Amino acid sequence: MSLAITVLILSTIATIAYFSVKNYSTSPIELEVWFTYEGGDIIKEKVANFENLHPDISIKFHEQPSSGWVDKFVSVAQTGESPDVFLAKGSWFGELATLGYIYSLTDFISPTLESSFLPFSITSLTYENELWGLPLWLDSILLFYNKDLFNQNGLEYPTANWTEIDMIFAAKNLTDLSETQRYGLAWSTLSPYMWPAFQYGYGHGPLYQNQTIIVNDTASVSAMEFIFNLKYDNICVGYDDCSSAATQAFLENKASMLIYGGWFVPVLKDVGFNYGIEILPKISSTGEFISPMAEVKGFGISKDTLYPETCFELISYLTSTETQQELVNEEYKIPTKNNLILSSTVQNNQDIKKQIEQISHSQNFPLDPIYAIYSDYIRAALQFILIDFHDIQETLNAAQQNIDANRGVDG
Hints:
alpha/beta; D-Maltodextrin-Binding Protein, domain 2; 2 domains; 19 helices
């Protein structure tokens, strides 16, 4: 009798356990997505489409500001509550990977899927031989110019054959500091993001080399002298304290040329601005192009997620050719899919083609966390030199010492 009761009890427990597991396995999967930058409406719609295709998946979509993004992500990751999926700029992935807060995608991605992306975009999200994100689009820094002001001053438009001499000539002729207070050229000269383009032009090579960053070599000094001379000798660069000041000056005809990102194109189109874009010029003494850092925006997966495989399926969908096609059409984004680069849609769009041409003369953005160290000290150095008139070589030497000290390099 007791044996029969025991069997009955065990049978009942087994049945309950079976249905408990079954109910758990079929319960809805809940994911959270953080999205930053342009194209939010497109991605939000794609997230909804993904939910329709997968009724068992529920996704919370949150748009996040780029300012303070890394600090916010780290803060929530420390509590184990970071979003399952996120869009981030390439330079953030290295820091998050080093902290152990995100998944490597190396074991998820198939050779076929990887080969569908531009090699440059895959390299831009690879750190320590691991892939940390799937690339959605590439951003480039370009030379924007006001066609009306060029026409009014009888100047030819910039070309891909321009040197810095041509740019200075045009900038000086387009500067009018009397009543209009218009400068020939504007950009955020205090930005650590912009400065490496000029370093490269003067022969420095990429910002990040041999697992470190050098800021006090001859090329770096020459680059800094070039910017200083533009500002104070040629007096043709202004509105340079921040990007917003420079872009607003361009929109108000207070700056004839602007060095800025391709994400500005939709803004200019919306207001009907008569603009042109060109790649940045060569430095005549070196024959090297002024080469900015091209940054990829990509989707990654948090270590906090309970569903890494599902997340990878989601980000594969959100970086698909179909999604990128809409971003090309509506946001003039540089796609990262090989088949889109060669499509007639892209090849017939001069704004995107020019951005792609600039990418071919651009550097990879370093994922190494040393970039954050570099950024802090070179921002201060730019301020000391361009605003406070400190000695260029001495200031760059001090910046180098600080970068090395915080990196752990023996100076």
